[in-house]
From TrEMBL:
Pfam families: AAA_21
Residue span(s) of domain ATPase AAA-type core: 97-206, 312-411
Matches recorded under PANTHER family: ATPASE AAA-TYPE CORE DOMAIN-CONTAINING PROTEIN, ATPASE-LIKE PROTEIN
Protein name: RloA protein
Statement: the UniProt record of this protein carries the keyword Transmembrane: yes
Length: 478
């Protein structure tokens, strides 16, 4: 039966009332389908939150140049354009965060602290009987023999987790994991235990783990759900890019699993370009920033592995398989392409970063990059930054945390006041200890140019440069 169409203008409330009236009184047959659709919409809405695996904040104490506890907080001050809903009431998180500071202020130390935490979690039983790679603050006698402390708050599939541990080079001194399903606190474990009912269970855990294996890693091996969720965030969702030389200082240049601990390499780009859709996407990005690269080819290697290297590979987990190479072409005409290593340092850096960028945006990773400005023009830095802020590109709520000297990102604060949440500064105290503080801690209403204010030292985090005449006099002294 057809109903006549009403051509008169109706208000939105009256239209809604009529729809519900028709559903309930005129078309009862469709009532159940209406609720099916409604429940599907609610389910999709919830599923969007259930898919998120995000970092809320990171705290570290007594590690390298960090003496007192410092906190990097990725929570936004409200529901803002540059933030997303975490799925937990009242918690909106930042898509992008930048840490500024002078040389030797401790920016890289914050990244290394998170990297050390990640590797200790990842390596599990591999570390049993081996010294842990923590390094306390050495400029104070009171701290050099005390444990370093690491802690994260995470939201994984709609559940809040608090996890952390403290450790010396010899042993794990404390460890804890709390989960908050439906907002209610659940103590998964505290090490050493304080609950007499679980003493026997914790004794078994301690016996299996020894002094320097985390209970989190142990529980993840046996498939405990809360343990596995947090472990997987460290192992699969957290990606950290930091200079290899800094990793070597802490013994991290080559993981004991036989994989490079750093989440960047030329080989990443090569592997991604083997997928035609991804290669096309990379070419579009390169074209959009005017690198004049028209074509990319993956060239299979024909290198023969020497007998001695095959022998080493048979006794270790290190992969000596020859790597394929990328060829970049600057014209569509037939010509010889260039190896990636023949391109400029900036081209190499951009392409190396672009692959983890695309992966992070596709999978919703937390990507941490030390010295983003290295070898890149300011406009490229802003381009990479804005990829994470673009809601059409960043549908999986990936997070980007960078350290940088490039001040061009600060110019965004002038255009968007809430952007202050995204900016942090590192500085050194007189005793050599690192401080970390957000731009939002300052009153900036009277400042017209945030970028210029930073350059002139208004917020700290810039090096003090003395009088050049003093240097000239010293050089000319005989």
């Amino acid at each position: 039966m057809r109903y006549p169409t009403n051509t008169t203008t109706e208000t939105i409330p009256s239209k809604i009332n009529k729809i519900f009236f028709n559903i309930i009184f005129i078309k009862p047959f469709f009532l159940k389908y209406f609720f099916f659709i409604l429940f599907d919409i609610i389910g999709l809405f919830k599923q969007n939150f259930k898919d998120k695996r995000v970092l809320v904040n990171f705290r570290v104490k007594n590690f390298m140049s960090i003496k007192e506890s410092i906190l990097l907080d990725l929570r936004a001050s409200g529901q803002q354009a540059h933030a997303f809903n975490s799925g937990i009431s009242g918690t909106h998180l930042l898509n992008t965060t930048a840490i500024y500071g002078a040389n030797a202020s401790g920016k890289t130390t914050i990244v290394l602290a998170l990297k050390i935490m990640q590797e200790i979690v990842r390596e599990g039983f591999i570390t049993r009987g081996i010294k842990l790679r923590v390094e306390p603050f050495l400029l104070d006698k009171k701290t050099k023999d005390k444990p370093s402390e690491f802690e994260v708050n995470l939201i994984i599939k709609g559940t809040h987790y608090n996890y952390g541990f403290s450790a010396t080079r010899e042993k794990i001194t404390k460890e804890w994991l709390y989960a908050y399903p439906n907002g209610e606190e659940k103590e998964c474990f505290i090490r050493p235990g304080s609950n007499s009912e679980s003493d026997q269970k914790q004794e078994r855990w301690q016996e299996m783990a020894g002094d320097n294996v985390l209970w989190l890693s142990l529980g993840a091996v046996f498939g405990a759900s809360y343990f596995r969720s947090v472990f997987d965030w460290f192992d699969k969702n957290l990606k950290i890019i930091v200079d290899e030389s800094r990793l070597e200082h802490l013994g991290l240049s080559l993981s004991r699993f036989g994989r490079f601990s750093n989440d960047i390499s030329n080989n990443n780009a090569t592997e991604m370009c083997k997928d035609e859709k991804t290669k096309t996407l990379i070419l579009k990005y390169l074209e959009s920033v005017d690198f004049s690269i028209k074509k990319i080819e993956v060239i299979p290697t024909t290198e023969v592995i020497p007998e001695e290297r095959r022998s080493i590979r048979s006794r270790t987990t290190i992969n000596f398989r020859p790597r394929d190479k990328l060829k970049l072409f600057h014209s569509n005409e037939h010509q010889e392409g260039f190896d990636l290593q023949q391109e400029s340092a900036g081209t190499q850096r951009f392409l190396e970063l672009l692959t983890p960028w695309i992966t992070a945006l596709r999978k919703g990773h937390t990507l941490v990059v030390d010295e983003l400005n290295e070898k890149l023009h300011s406009r490229l830095i802003r381009f990479l930054w804005e990829m994470f802020q673009n809601k059409d590109l960043n549908k999986k709520h990936a997070q980007l945390v960078v350290t940088t000297h490039d001040t061009s990102l600060l110019s965004l604060v002038n255009d968007l006041e809430p952007f202050k949440d995204c900016i942090w500064f590192c500085a050194k105290k007189d005793n050599g200890a690192t401080l970390l503080f957000p731009l939002s801690a300052y009153e900036t209403d009277s400042i017209k140019d945030i970028e210029e204010a930073y350059r002139t030292g208004r917020f700290g985090g810039v090096p003090f440069v003395g009088d050049i005449d003093f240097i000239i006099d010293a050089l000319l002294e005989k």
